[in-house]
Write a structure and sequence with these properties.
This protein is mostly helical and about 130 residues long. The protein has one domain: Helix Hairpins (Orthogonal Bundle). About 95% of the residues lie in helices and about 0% in strands. The protein has two helices and no strands. Helix 1 packs antiparallel against helix 2. The radius of gyration is 30 Å and the shape is rod-shaped.
């Protein structure tokens, strides 16, 4: 009788662990799918930001040219108008530089997120191999 109770107890424990393990694997599969979706989103974000960054840098070069053009004296333009044009062009350059820096930081943050997500995906895959 004692052997039967021990056997039943062992069987129930194994069944419980099996169900628990199955639930963990289902959860891991769901997390894996979500992580892979996040990874794709991060990668798409990097591509988009890189394109925006490239465009921003082009605009920045154009704005720097405007500053240089504003510095050149022009016929019928007062010194005040010249200074105003220089200030306006300089402000545009500063705004574009700030925007470029922010985009660079966003790209770096997304690259970090990609790395962390890839690590998470690899851990989930290892868990699912068990």
């Amino acid at each position: 009788m004692k052997n039967i109770i021990l056997s039943l107890s062992l069987l129930l424990t194994i069944s419980f662990l099996s169900c628990n393990n199955r639930a963990e694997k289902e959860s891991a599969l769901k997390n894996l799918e979500q992580s892979q979706n996040k990874l794709r989103e991060f990668q798409q974000g990097i591509v988009q930001l890189t394109e925006n960054l490239r465009n921003n840098k082009t605009e920045l070069e154009v704005a720097k040219d405007r500053v240089e053009q504003a510095k050149v004296p022009q016929f019928l333009r007062t010194p005040e108008e010249r200074e105003q044009a220089i200030r306006k062009a300089t402000k545009e350059v500063q705004n574009l530089e700030t925007s470029t820096d922010e985009m660079n930081h966003e790209v770096l943050a997304l690259k970090d997120s990609v790395t962390q997500t890839e690590v998470n995906i690899n851990r989930l895959k290892e868990f699912l191999k068990k």
